[in-house]
TrEMBL record:
SUPFAM superfamilies, per the entry: PLP-dependent transferases (SSF53383)
Protein name per UniProt: Aminotransferase
Single GO molecular function: pyridoxal phosphate binding
Keyword Transferase: yes
Quaternary structure annotation from Swiss-Prot or TrEMBL: Homodimer.
Organism: Natrinema versiforme JCM 10478
Amino acid sequence: MTMEFTDRVSRVEPSATLAISALATELEAEGADVVDLSVGEPDFPTPENIVEAGQDAMDAGHTGYTTSAGILELREAIADKLADDGLDHSTDEIIVTPGAKQALYEIVQALVEDGDEVALLDPAWVSYEAMVKMAGGDLTRVDLSETDFQLEPALDDLADAVSDETELLIVNSPSNPTGAVYSDDALEGVRDLAVEHDITVISDEIYKEITYGVEPTSLGTLEGMADRTVTVNGFSKAYSMTGWRLGYFAGPEDLIDQAGKLHSHSVSSAVNFVQHAGLEALETETAVTEMVDAFEERRDLVVDLLADHGVDVAVPEGAFYMMLPVDDDDQAWCEGAIEDAHVATVPGSAFGTPGYARISYAASEERLEEGIERLAEEGYL
Ligand code: PLP
């Protein structure tokens, strides 16, 4: 018997990251000085030239509906960007969405039927689980916490977890919440399993532009993967455009056709002038480089400060998160940390990995130092 939509949604918890942010805002409203290390967004303003491009587009009257898949110029620019990453997609194989989250939602809805099995690598970004459950799918999870969040040493576990019954595997490298960037050998292992069991793979590359000394490979470039990979990316993180809501996905044409129906009947399109701002963003790499340099310095600072307090972390190579090992009851640890030290973090259990708290270092060096000092003072390190 198929599951009712209400049953599917009732299997889903509200977003833990958003809940912590709401708690931080509440404490701040009461006058507390909260060091918020829970947020998943760059603390840099959207680059001026991108803002201006959006304003110019509004002034020029780009305020009506656009083609559902997105304006052709933007899809061409995305196709060029993907080609630079080694991915060959025509503009017909690209859909521009209001954020990468919407892209992921559309793909999961288009692919996953009631009872389908979907594999996740834990810790996994909070919304994958929710999206799969809302589509009626069942989850198979592979724990990477025993291997410093690296996939390569856990390939045997992944091999045990997937089978011909697996419909979809979601890979996110660089990863939220761990900052891990998977090696080429790891991705080749994924490819071998995907081909063997005929699995479609979503490669969520939203942090691809934010890495420290490593070049992440796009999964879809590996032999045998072009026809089974849906690549997701967006503008929120790399261009500090979280509130503009702009993302995209590219994949095999039949899947794009299916997801495209869902897209046109739900969101119509991404916002017109925002798409023009996105076009400008793709032509500007300077802002990204400056931001990445700052994140790298902050990562080093946090790793060093934690080491001074005797805490070793798996050093992230991308994104702006790291996993801090905490008590088994990570939920209680995070609640205590925010109440006693006024430092907001996200419990690892929200990502399927209890015993950790996710720290976002998208905060100034001063605030990071303050946050770690307070955690230490209150006995949380
Ligand atoms: N994928 C991952 C792994 C993320 O961390 C996020 C945002 O936090 C998204 C997708 C969604 O990004 P967007 O703001 O483009 O919807």
